[in-house]
Every structure is written in structure tokens, then in C-alpha cells.
Design a protein that fits this description.
By secondary structure, the protein is of the alpha/beta class. The protein has helices at about 10-25, 30-35, 55-65, 75-90, 105, 125-135, 155-165, 175-190, 210-215, 225-240, and strands at about 45-50, 70-75, 95-100, 110-120, 140-150, 195-205, 245-255. The chain has one domain (about 5-150, about 170-200, about 245-255): Rossmann fold, CATH 3.40.50.150. It is globular, with a radius of gyration of 19 Å.
């Protein structure tokens, strides 16, 4: 089980990572996600682990005025920011609910045409319980799409980080193996059919400062390495114009007939 890290509960760090992906990423994760979800106007969509609304906000535009977005997250600060943004953008179809995903069956009722969990499902403590709850919330003909890091996600920046400590990169943790080792088997046991997709998004940093800001907003961050990382990043860019690390994502589309 993956413990929630310092930067997973830090709304500012989340925003920093999102901004980094937008600024330095090669491709658009949302475009890839939505291509697999087939969202149309009028649908009810449940966004699990919504954060500040990276997916909820564009989903609200896709479902239109007659659709509904139910955004769930454990952190009220993130939900408050999402609600403020929804009001500013005139998106009343977004409703927020504070809930641990392990208590989904207690806090979310009804049926949904689409359920999404982007970079959040691997924080659950009771996988079978949560996947059964999700299955019961998907209406007949609906689908559940979840995605997150794969085994070799961000390998390049991990190698840089652990190289500063003169250590080998440790084996993948719970979050990097959850979807393949736990999510896929559970999906296969509960849903009528499913597909697995992969997505690679190179992040190309053009300065030591940009690389440092990303690392320092990420759970890899180690305060004891702070100065050494800055020095290492500066030394790297003395001889290189770009540092590339690759976001390696795995997604699962589960269909319920």
C-alpha cells in the first residue's frame, strides 16, 4: 500500500506539477484520457481523486449544461479551489464531495455513464472493496477509465536523483506497479471487457531551475539533497541544453454491458 506523501496532500505542489507538465510536456495527457472515455453531452461523470480539477473542468465542458460532473477528493482545500474555478468559469454542472476513495460506497450514490480515476486509484487501501464499489456505480453500457504511472515512470530523473546519492534506483513502488499488478486483475474479474493502453510523455527541461522546481514538488524530493541537486542540475546544463525525463503512463478502459 502506498502512503500519501507530503506532496500528494499539498495543493500548491500539485499545481506546480500540473504547470510543469503543461509547460515542458510533449503531449497532452487529458487528450489521451478523453480519447478513451468517449464522453458526450448529457452524461453523468464521476471523477475520483479530482484534485483541483485537471480533468473535471474540461469534462464539464464536454458533458454540457445537461450533463453532471461529480468530483471526489480527500482534500477539501483542493475541492474548494475547484469549486471556485467552476464558479468563475460558469460551470454549475460540477459538484464536489470530500471522501476517501476507500469510503466511496458510503459517500457516493447513483449510477454514472463514465467514471475516471487519473493518478489517484493507487492510494486506496482496500482494492477489491473499492473496485466492487466502482463497478456498482457504473451503469450498464458505461465505462471506467483509470490511469497512473507504469513501472519505469520518470526513470531518468530517478537515475539523476539516486546518482547524487551514489545509489541504484530502487525497485518500483506500489504506485508504479498498482495498475498492472492489482488494477488489471481486478478489472478482469469484475468487468465484462477491458483494454490496456500506454502513453509516454517526455518532459523536456531547458534549465536547471525548471528541473529543480519539478523535483522539489515531487515525492522524490529529499531536503538533505537540496543543495547537491541544484549543483548537479547546474553542472548538467553546463554541457547539455535539455534534460528529458519520461512520464510513462498505463491506462485501463473497463466496459460494463
Amino acid at each position: 500500500m502506498l502512503e500519501i506523501g507530503k506532496f500528494d496532500s499539498d495543493t500548491d505542489a500539485l499545481k506546480q506539477r500540473i504547470n510543469t507538465h503543461d509547460k515542458f510536456g510533449t503531449y497532452d495527457l487529458n487528450e489521451w484520457i478523453f480519447n478513451h472515455m468517449d464522453v458526450v453531452q448529457g452524461q453523468r461523470v464521476l471523477d475520483l481523486g479530482c484534485g483541483t480539477g485537471k480533468q473535471s473542468l474540461p469534462l464539464a465542458k464536454l458533458v454540457g449544461e445537461k450533463g453532471q460532473i461529480f468530483s471526489v477528493d480527500i482534500w477539501q482545500k483542493s475541492l474548494d479551489e475547484l469549486q471556485q474555478t467552476a464558479i468563475r468559469l460558469a460551470l454549475p454542472q460540477i459538484q464536489t464531495t470530500q471522501s476517501d476513495l476507500d469510503e466511496l460506497d458510503q459517500n457516493v450514490k447513483g449510477e454514472f455513464d463514465r467514471i475516471l480515476s487519473s493518478y489517484s486509484i493507487y492510494y486506496i487501501k482496500k482494492p477489491l472493496h473499492v473496485f466492487q464499489a466502482i463497478h456498482s456505480l457504473v451503469r450498464s453500457g458505461g465505462l471506467f477509465f483509470f490511469c497512473g504511472p507504469s513501472r519505469f515512470n520518470n526513470l531518468e530523473i530517478k537515475q539523476f536523483h539516486y546518482g547524487l546519492r551514489k545509489e541504484e534506483v530502487p525497485p518500483p513502488n506500489w504506485s508504479d506497479t498498482f495498475i498492472e499488478d492489482i488494477g488489471v486483475p481486478l478489472t478482469q474479474s469484475l468487468f465484462n471487457s477491458f483494454e490496456v493502453f500506454r502513453f509516454e510523455n517526455p518532459l523536456r527541461f531547458d534549465s536547471a531551475d525548471g528541473l529543480y522546481k519539478y523535483w522539489s514538488s515531487y515525492n522524490l524530493y529529499d531536503e538533505s539533497l537540496d543543495e547537491k541537486f541544484k549543483q548537479g542540475a547546474n553542472a548538467y546544463f553546463e554541457n547539455n541544453s535539455v534534460f528529458t525525463t519520461v512520464k510513462r503512463v498505463i491506462g485501463v478502459k473497463a466496459m460494463k454491458s
